[in-house]
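Thanks for the sequence, V.! I ran Mitochondrial translation release factor in rescue right away. Repeating your input here for the record:
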Amino acid sequence: MNISGLCLLIGREMVSRRSSIFGIPGKFLSPPMAMTSLQIAGRKDVYDLLPLNESELQEQFVKGHGPGGQATNKTNNCVVLKHVPSGIVVKCHQTRSVEMNRKRARTILQEKVDLFYKGENSQVYQQQEEARRQKQEKRQKARKNLEKKKHLKEMLKNELESK
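Predicted structure:
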């Protein structure tokens, strides 16, 4: 490759990597750029989701559920978010913080609304289908390997018995 640097466009940020700096291959140009690339690489998939209009949402804060005893029974930190046009309701009580639950509920609702309106064309649906397909292929491969091992054991057993 006669290109002096390899450039990867990840999202809106450009990460540049030289093939050799000071004789050390694979060194990033600057530590901040290396940090940025690690942060980008660690992020979850970002989808092109339909935006949520705040005027179409109804938000309620209710008492949480699950373990936690008196603290859970007293605080209204569970968020119930409803998208009025589609009728989709999301309930989020993943953390003790109301603000974090609000953010997570909006993210979940945005994915569900996107799936509702786009259907099979939704990126969320396509990723779920890809994961389902990979899991099925993995099961089939494991099943075939088990059958091969079983067949091999039977052949070895038959050979030992015939001798």
